[in-house]
User: What shape does this take?
Amino acid sequence: MKINNWRGKLAVTLAASGLLSPAAARAANLNTNLVVNPGFESTDFITTGDYGAPSILDWSGGPGFAYSHNPDVTSVPDYADGADPPGAGNWYFTANNNPGSATGDFREPGLFYQDIDVSTGPTAAAIAAGKGRVNLSAWMSSYLNDNDFGKVRVDYLDAGGASQGFSQISDNDPGPDNVWSQTTGFGAIAVGTAKLRVSLFGEAVNNGSDAYIDNVDVQVSQTTNPQFLSLEINTVTGQVQFKNQTGDAVQVDYYEIKSAAGSLKPASWTSLQDQNLASFPAGNGSGNGWEEAGGVAAGVLSESFLTGSSSVAAAASVSLGAAFDTAKAQDVVFRYAVVPPASLTADFDADGDADGADFLAWQRNNGLATGATKAQGDANGDGAVNADDLAAWKLQFGGGGFAGPGVLVRGVVTYVGAGIAAVPEPTSLLYCGFAVAAAVAFRRRASS
Amino acid sequence: MKVTNLRRKLMATLAAGGLLQAGVADAANLDVNLVVNGGFESVDFGTLGSSSGPLVTDWTPQGFAYSHDGSGGVPNYANGTPLANGGSYYFAPGSITTGGTPHHTLETAITQSISVAAGATGSLIATGNAKFSLSAYFNSYQSQADHGNVQVEFLNGANTVVGTGIATPGPGALPDWTKVTVTGAIPTGTATVKVSAWGTLLQGGGSDGYIDNIDFQVASLLAISVNRSTGAITLSNQTGSAKNISSYSITSTSQSLSPATWLSIADNYDNGNPGPNQVDATHAWNETSLPTDFTKLAESDPANAGASLASGRLVNLGAAWVQTPTEDLKFEYVSGGQLFQGSVEYVGGPGGNPLIEGDLNVDGVISSADWAIVRANQHVSLSGKSLAQAYRLGDFNGDLANDHADFIAFKNLYDAANGVGAFAAMVSAVPEPATWVLAAASATLLISRRRPTGSANCR
Assistant: This one.
């Protein structure tokens, strides 16, 4: 549906004025671009920004405005660098035309955006199974030799509108030579996501954020493996177990299983602390292993590991006993905290640990006062190699791996009958918003 | 405001030259040190005294510093170990520029004037309800008997001295930094307090009575004392004479008050409650704060007459403070029909210090004992609690819940205090550089024991 409303400018009247209101996004299908007006070809000259730029239809916030690939035709200027993207059409979005704002531009997410409903159909099923992946692509450029660059971000909003994390791409050729180029990326969609909020904005490096964006493409695909841990609940026996079907080990230091309807049975729960497994050592009350929360009840089962974390091996499954009341509502929400790999500032040879080889790098260059690199043993980035850097190495020596508290992630919940294969739970619309920053794998790929 | 002007020494220029001028202290507040640069940490290397000691700012006439720790290449001539919390510099009364006058007497002392005529100090002083506390640390040079002196003179509006107080260790060599404190009533009519510091010359050529951390505070004679260890609040009359009180309020914006454990006069010590601790035998007091209000404890005699608190009288108001790191209590009272801001003094606690974030059991450390409190209250409903009560039950982010966000907060606090769990054992085992190879091998063993690589218990 392409709409060029030249009414104000060319005295042409569109009969179907209803078309000018933002349309409800079509959702629910996999592997298709879910963005409405992705190339910004639907514009409206009734509302114009600076330089006579028309406003962009079908997007929220703003209003946002378009510059033109074809100024000779449209009489709206073209400020972008580089050859036009394929299928560029007449218009592209400029992040530096927002006369109504204090900065005059769009430099934060949520200011110019489009919400995509993914709470029904194949997208909903994929997301509930933890297999929803967002594939993101856009063409971006900037003004002349400015270093400003564009960003496209997808926030994962639950049914209540609360963010559960986001994925973002930024122009892969920022800097003075920024020309039209395509940037792509992908991210795991948080379980519980009902809407994708696609925000377009720019990083302001030289004055305003003169970033230009065109042909935004947001698709949901389904991964083979779930991207999150799963909680499998047997609706006949009440047995509960968590499973790692992601294909990779997951380091965790906390989990919580919640049921608003009180469908949990603490007395039948076999906690990690109860089991004292080799992979999940029980704590003795001092925080040196997994320990049950004091507030455990029919509404919540939870354990945490204060002084460390445990690896849930790939393909592992761990029983938590008959902790589900089969007579009660199937409303269980499962969350766990993923401990990210430690930041190894003293991994001077960049091989993934802080070991003797890194110490040698420090020793060889100890005393350098200025200009030292990390490879030379400068752990704290102050340009010198000295005792401070040795202290960092000491702290990280041998540990490598994981440190600090984890990031809360919502897992998959599946209900199975005896002998019946797991099926994903229907998306719960009752889920109340709780902001979760999901760990997101991301990759940027340059494109010619 | 600490200003170290290394202008000449380091060829750096401070833009804000105004900072170097002696300031008139902003007074009017109770229970805080009113001396500006009482620790002599703001110095100016643009003007140097003996042994290249820098000029101390905010005092007149020129006085110069020596250094506890050799900062700026300035020597330390004081006996014993450097003063803890003494910073880098201390005042050396014998240190002068060439041809300058050494600070040997009260007449040649460095001085600073503090206005106390306004605000809380003003109203208390005007009615004879203010006391002062003057303290400083002193030291000397080797075995010389020279000694430092710090004096406060109380001047009325006509600049006439109406009273004095002096802190000095007296003659004789001190082996280490020694604190001397004097307290007393502030004479009615005092408008300005003039602080003077000098050294008495008894041996050698200069007066080597060193001085640091000069502290002058004004407090109310009717005050509350708050015990960090127990949460007990005690009303006390330190005026030296009986004082009338007809109402008071204790407030806390951080919701750290506990109406349920408050022992009010209305419920315990008024005319309906005879006994040895009775405060007011004549009037029935009323609590004027709500039992659900965690920000305020207030009561009064509705007749506005009140009672007389004998000199030295202590009134136990109960363990009504929920101990947290935030010490924000304010105390106001009406005496003789006039409203005063009273002093709040915190006493006790681990090391006599404010509590630290995460020390939920008030023992001075963040340990597994605190974790036991956090864990026991994870996912326990905290509705109806005050923010301070919830904090003590493991709610670190003030949302009246103890959940994963609070686990993150406590784990970070715990790791910061005890070392990151996974590394804690390793750090102590890190060897000296010469022997790292052997130790690295054993450490590798340790790691592989700590983190078994086998799959999780599969069923």
Remarks:
- The helical segments of chain B are 7-10, 119-126, 265-268, 368-376, 387-392, 404-418, 421-429, 436-450.
- The CA atoms of residues 15 and 399 of chain B lie 44 Å apart.
- Residues 6-27, 421-459 of chain B have pLDDT under 50 and may be disordered.
